[in-house]
Write a structure and sequence with these properties.
Chain lengths: 293, 771
């Protein structure tokens, strides 16, 4: 690995300043579980590595005023161990339960997972299905970016080179909502998904009809996506398996999966159809209901 | 936990043999005290780094090392142009530094020794190589065609001049006799050993010019011979080479040959005049270490209406890759199951190894047997179905038995195949579970492997020296190699048993060619059998010397004396006794005294295969049966192993705990081979040189293994034992594929058995998944 200078600014503003000063030669580091791997492979060779670990407050989980706020430096392990997240934002807990290993989760952060822009990022689908918004800070101050607009391509995001992700803001779900993230892998652990399906369901009063569904897919396209056609199809309809199977077919229209050495597009398509109804059924089961048919 | 099916007790209760003892160095290893090549450091040591090829096939036009040479901290830069030519591999077709052309991305083009690894890496980046790309060929079938690019022009053909051929009986007549015949083609992928410890070595020249190589090799003495050839090339003909083993972080056949990187390290140490260590990164380990080769196997078998096998006909094409290592000789082992798994009177086997611009093929645990057995045993199920037999019954009908001489000339001593089949039937609840086609299914895969060494070389021997000190502490110097399998412990148990001392009094020393006597290497599941017998006979000889001394000290006839718990006593009158250490001191502390040193060179009673590839090349044969119960997710194609059982006829379990370790570790490799391991290449480039994309099982993927140990008592084995190092992965793939067939009715004829292959039709009506 190439030698570099390591910086530990005490505030986001200082980090932004350093990023602006060093430009291309600088790189932010959070847990380093993506960045250091790439540095070792020589894919990234920053001269300045800027850590956010000394910035106060960025590793806090805060729930108030109808919003869950995750600091960018919140680790996957902290999410995994948060009873609040497991209870109220369950699919986010699903995302980290099988992310890397305990060792990885102890240092890897949710901010790094999102900012890295990998099409396979495990928290991306769940955060999309939670309608998350990102609070970022740059030289001109703060701005909000909807996660829906954040991913621009493999490894590409809407962040400018001198912007820092501060916080991920997630609106509270109504108590009747339920959710599920399915990570489909070859191996049971230490694996990236072949396909990820995240589903948040908000039923009508009575629980028989789906009022709103948010469906996100990873590895179904060059970036994590929302399956809008599928969402529209299931809204207002009862929780029937047939409806969700149709949704699976519609989700294909929102998708453009690729063949790579990891698997084929055909297999990914088949998994979209197989796993969307499964994710919805398992979400429903969590609220004590069952998918009919 | 293992269930042991024991033979009739031989009467005498054993003290050390048969005990569940943890491996002697287990504590050192878990505490991080064992010294691996990665830990080793010498004063003034430099770090070596290799520059690999950027092409699969290209002419080298120019190598410019001038910028690397100028980098501060660089102490040597070598290429094929400024060093003597050294060729390695058993066909000597692999120059350690490539000159004129490269044949694979893994090719060594230059190397550097520097004060730090970082400097060495930087220096390698500064070397500029000009290439002219050449047309390449990656498919062995294409490589055999007229006009295909030649990998080694001087050979005139890509087909190796190793025409493997075995004919027993009359295979064509056998086909005519068959009432049912099945013909299929099976495909097996490249897979690699995945040693936890990557490859590496450290070379150091002594002031007088003698060389020491520290290495995790499996073949200390053959490596010594190879390194002496390098010394001759350097003009150091009369100097000595000492090979010292480090702790081995896994080998599995990968360290059974010597490779260019070792010679490069020696060259670097020579030209830099300082010790040099070169250790592979994980990525290098994946693409530069030879692997288990890709095989295409056409196979036909037939049986009569009564279910008797009449013939087996197998034709294989093996991807040899760009160079020749032991991979090209694996057909010699594939012949074993092809000729001798079950009673099959008429057999034909031919195999061609073909050069391509792929990574190259070497030995890997099982040595061809897993590939051959996948084809044979998958097809046995298909044949049984055609002929209307329960596949397990069909195997019982054709099972091998003790005392038979197989068509290839193997003299089978002990054989517990039927016991193993019965044990697996019971453990899987076979009769209840089979044939449901409801997404759950059971399957078995039987195996045969050499269990009493294998006479591949003129000698299959191992030497042992035993000495005892003043305090009755025993030192055993064995030529064997412990690579984690537990040879150190097993040898200690055998010697403890024979000498009547406790395990704690024994120290086993292995790993220094200046100290111990010769051994051919840790291969062919031979160490417990061959090194075990060698240690046993050396211990017996030491015991005779001790008892002769004690006889005069105690005034008792020697035949009446025995040793137990480090006391020499008279069997007739146990009151007459003497501490073993007193006997030894009495030998030392007297005028005209003596010392107790014994040695034995054990070579098993076997034959080399003759010109027709026939003969009894092992002193014993190990049999076993793998059984699996699986559940297949019909929507996703994922295969879940619900139960996994291995029943293994091991002759005698010297150490059931270590034996289970072998069975479980082997199963992990075998299940990985069956379901997900696949070293993927595209135009010769390894696509997945990391543990994210090369899918080895994790703990979470590993089912619990039920180990059933069948003890048949092998006449030539130490305390009745046979070798079991390789068999625990041989039967996995067919057992799982057969179980998947039982669950789904889908027969997958290629590994790994991926969800894609299960969900998509092979006939192309849908896009076929898999790679
Ligand atoms: C063994 C192993 C297993 C893994 N398994 C998984 C898995 O199962 N699922 C999965 O999704 N990932 C996995 N990963 C990838 C990785 O752990 C995750 O993506 C992790 O969340 C990255 O977080 P980090 O804090 O380590 O990021 P870093 O590596 O520190 O940073 C990643 C990128 O984000 C940028 N960045 C970080 N923080 C900010 C910020 N606040 N503002 C702007 N840019 C920022 C960095 O500059 C860098 O480009 C694995 C990695 C390893 C090594």
């Amino acid at each position: 690995m190439r030698r570099f200078t390591y910086h530990e600014p005490k505030s986001i503003a200082d980090a932004v300043h350093l990023l602006s000063a060093y430009g291309e030669k600088a790189r932010l580091i959070a847990g380093g579980t993506d960045l250091v791997v790439e540095m070792k492979q020589g894919k990234k060779e920053p001269d300045h590595v800027i850590s956010l670990r000394s910035v106060p407050g960025v590793n806090e989980i805060n729930f108030s005023g109808g919003y869950l706020r995750l600091g960018a430096m919140v680790t996957h392990r902290a999410i995994e161990r948060s009873p609040l997240i497991r209870e109220r934002f369950t699919l986010l807990a699903d995302a980290v339960d099988n992310l890397g290993s305990v060792q990885v989760r102890n240092v890897a952060t949710v901010g790094g997972n999102i900012c890295n822009g990998a099409p396979s990022a495990d928290t991306a689908g769940p955060l999309l299905a939670l309608d998350a918004v990102l609070l970022v800070e740059g030289p001109e101050g703060e701005r909000n970016i909807s996660l829906n607009e954040f991913f621009r391509g493999p490894g590409k995001t809407a962040l400018a080179a001198n912007e820092v992700l501060k916080q991920i803001i997630i609106p509270e779900l109504p108590p009747e909502a339920c959710s599920r993230y399915l990570k489909h892998t070859r191996r049971k652990a230490m694996d990236l998904p072949l396909l990820g399906v995240a589903v948040t369901l908000i039923p009508e009063a009575g629980g028989e009809i789906c009022r709103e569904a948010r469906i996100a897919l990873t590895l179904a396209a060059p970036t994590p996506i929302r399956a809008i056609r599928a969402e529209k199809h299931v809204a207002g309809k009862p929780f029937y398996r047939a409806v969700w199977e149709e949704a699976g077919v519609l989700a294909l229209e929102d998708s453009s999966p690729r063949t790579s050495f990891r698997t084929t597009a055909a297999y990914r398509k088949k998994m979209i159809c197989a796993l969307l109804p499964r994710a919805a059924a398992e979400a429903l089961e969590r609220s004590g209901r069952t998918m009919k048919g | 936990m293992a269930k042991v099916l024991e033979p009739e007790s031989g009467g005498v209760a054993l003290q050390a043999v048969g005990k569940r003892l943890p491996k002697l160095d287990a504590l050192d290893k878990v505490q991080g005290k064992a010294v691996y090549i990665h830990d080793l450091k010498m004063p003034r040591m430099l770090y070596g780094k290799i520059l690999w090829s950027r092409h699969a096939h290209a002419r080298i036009l120019n190598i410019d090392t001038s910028r690397a040479e100028k980098l501060p901290g660089v102490r040597a830069v070598i290429t094929g142009y400024n060093t003597p030519e050294i060729k390695v591999g058993f066909l000597k077709d692999n120059p350690v530094l490539k000159k004129d052309k490269v044949r694979q991305y893994r090719d060594e083009v230059a190397a550097v020794a520097a004060e730090s690894l970082e400097i060495a890496e930087e220096a390698v980046r500064l070397i500029e190589v000009e290439y002219e790309p050449l047309p390449a060929v990656f498919d062995p079938v294409e490589a055999m065609r007229e006009g295909a690019p030649l990998i080694h022009e001087e050979k005139g053909s890509n087909i190796l001049k190793l025409p493997w051929k075995l004919i027993c009986g009359d295979p064509d007549e056998g086909r005519r006799q068959a009432d049912f015949v099945v013909e299929e083609t099976f495909l097996l992928p490249w897979v690699t050993h995945c040693c936890l410890g990557t490859s590496g070595c450290l070379a150091e020249f002594q002031p007088g010019g003698n060389l020491t190589v520290y290495s995790p090799t499996q073949i200390r003495y053959l490596a010594q011979r190879d390194f002496l050839e390098a010394m001759a090339a350097l003009g150091l003909k009369d100097k000595r080479v000492r090979v010292v083993s480090t702790a081995i972080g896994g080998a599995f056949g990968s360290k059974l040959d010597t490779y260019p990187f070792e010679f490069i390290t020696i060259l670097l140490a020579y030209y830099a005049g300082r010790p040099v260590k070169l250790v592979f990164s994980r990525e290098e380990e994946f693409f530069a270490t030879p692997a288990r080769q890709k095989v295409e196997a056409k196979i036909a078998q037939g049986c009569t209406r009564e279910g008797r096998l009449t013939f087996r006909d197998v034709e294989m094409v093996l991807d040899n890759g760009a160079y020749t290592s032991w991979g090209a000789t694996t057909p010699s082992v594939m012949m074993m199951p092809i000729s001798s798994l079950y009673k099959v009177p008429n057999v034909r086997y031919t195999a061609r190894c073909v050069y391509t611009n792929n990574i190259y093929a070497t030995a890997m645990r099982g040595y061809g047997n897993p590939q051959a057995t996948f084809a044979i045993e998958s097809q046995i199920d298909a044949l049984a179905e055609q002929a209307g037999f329960d596949p397990l019954e069909f195997r019982m009908l054709n099972a091998n038995t003790a005392g038979e001489v197989t068509p290839q000339g193997f003299k089978v001593g002990s054989c517990g195949m039927k016991e193993c089949l019965e044990a697996v039937r019971e453990s899987l609840n076979w009769n209840e579970k089979r044939g449901k086609r409801n997404g759950r299914g059971v399957g078995v895969g039987s195996l045969i492997h050499v269990g009493g060494g294998a006479r591949i070389y003129k000698s299959d021997a191992c030497g042992t020296i035993i000495k005892l000190d003043d305090f009755a502490k025993v030192t055993v110097m064995s030529g064997a190699t412990d690579m984690g399998q537990g040879s150190d412990t097993v040898i200690a148990q055998i010697v403890a048993e024979e000498l009547g001392v406790c395990i704690g009094d024994i120290k086993v020393i292995m790993g220094n060619t200046d100290l111990e006597t010769w051994d051919v290497g840790a291969h062919a599941s031979r160490t417990t059998f061959v090194a075990g017998n060698s240690a046993l006979y050396a211990a017996r000889s030491a015991k005779e010397q001790i008892l002769a001394l004690a006889a005069s000290l105690l005034n008792e006839p020697q035949e009446d004396l025995a040793i137990k718990n480090s006391v020499v006593y008279s069997r007739r009158n146990p009151a007459v006794s003497m501490q073993l250490e007193r006997v030894l001191r009495a030998a030392h502390f007297k005028t005209g005294g003596t010392q107790i040193v014994a040695s034995h060179f054990y070579d098993p009673p076997t034959q080399m295969l003759d010109k027709e590839m026939k003969g009894n090349f092992s002193a014993a044969y190990t049999y076993g049966v793998h059984g699996a119960e699986v559940e297949v997710d019909r929507e996703t194609g994922r295969v879940e192993i619900l139960k996994y059982v291995i029943a293994m006829d091991v002759g005698k379990a010297i150490n059931p705990m270590l034996l289970e370790g072998q069975l479980e570790g082997g199963a992990a490799m075998g299940i990985g081979y069956s379901l997900m391991e696949n070293l993927q290449t595209e135009k010769g480039k390894v696509l997945n040189p990391n543990f994210l994309d090369y899918k080895m099982l994790t703990f979470a993927d590993m089912p619990e293994i039920t180990s059933i140990i069948v003890e048949t008592g092998e006449r030539f084995g130490p305390f009745g034992a046979k070798g079991i190092g390789e068999p625990p992965l041989v039967g996995s793939a067919p057992a799982i594929a057969n179980a998947v067939y039982d669950a789904t009715g889908k027969r997958v004829r290629s590994l790994p058995l991926t969800p894609e292959k299960l969900l998509f039709d092979a006939d192309g009506s849908e896009e076929r998944g898999g790679e």
